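During the no-cost extension, the postdoctoral fellow (Dr. R.K.) reprocessed legacy sequence entries with the updated structure-token encoder. One reprocessed record is reproduced below for audit purposes.
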Amino acid sequence: MKSATSALSAPFILKVAGSVILLSALVDYLSLLIPFQASSKEWVITTVSQSIDRGFVPLIGLVLLYVSYFLESGTLAPQGKSPFVTGRFWAIALSCLFGLGFLFSSPAYFLNSGDLVTNRLKTISEERDRIVAQTEQEEKILEAQIPQRLAQLQEQVKDKAKLDQELKALTDAVNSGQLKGDQLEQAKKAQQDLEKLKSDPNHLNNMAKDFKDKELMRIRENRKKAEDQSKKLTDQTNTDVTKTRIRMALNSLLFAIAYTIVGWVGLAEMGTFSKSNR
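Re-encoded structure tokens follow.
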């Protein structure tokens, strides 16, 4: 008696589990569609990708339902009832709909992701061009400012008394011991430059050239960094998109095949394709 009870309860348990899993999956899919924004490419891509990632859940529910029906009667065929009023038929029909949906998911993802990637690459390119244009502008400003600043400094160097006063102030600061680290190194460098200027006013040209070279190097390094970062982002985007497209295409195709086979076998088992039902 215990064995018979277990055998009778098994289909019921499987049917309940399969129904809950399938209904839960349908609710989950409906939540993905709300709010419906078919005109938004990002929404389409997100919805399609999440739908494909969830594809195995309703498949498990359908398989559990199929197993429960076979355990009950050994077949999916309706027992003296119209197939349209049985849960078996609607489970099979749902499986066919899932198969059709996954069949069209891959093209939908490919079409919309292509435009989205193009826009993303365009944004990366525009940001690179903006930084390059900015560095070119900085170079032009530097080229214009250096002669002007050099002329101003040359006038200041002619004032020997002021030069001696600045040199004394720097010497006192260095010898005071209050400056540490970078501040001390900068003060010593300025002290050396003032001493060279005092003995050779033309040293100002060398200082201007060194400053210009350092600034140009900094500007060009920033430009190269921006170009390298842009290339890295472009390559990474193309790689990620290619991998995701392949994954989505294969998964949607596999799910389409699985759901179609389940639906086709179910319809055949119900006698839909038999000559006696024509």
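The mean pLDDT is 77. The CA atoms of residues 125 and 190 lie 42 Å apart. The remaining legacy entries will be reprocessed before the final report is submitted.
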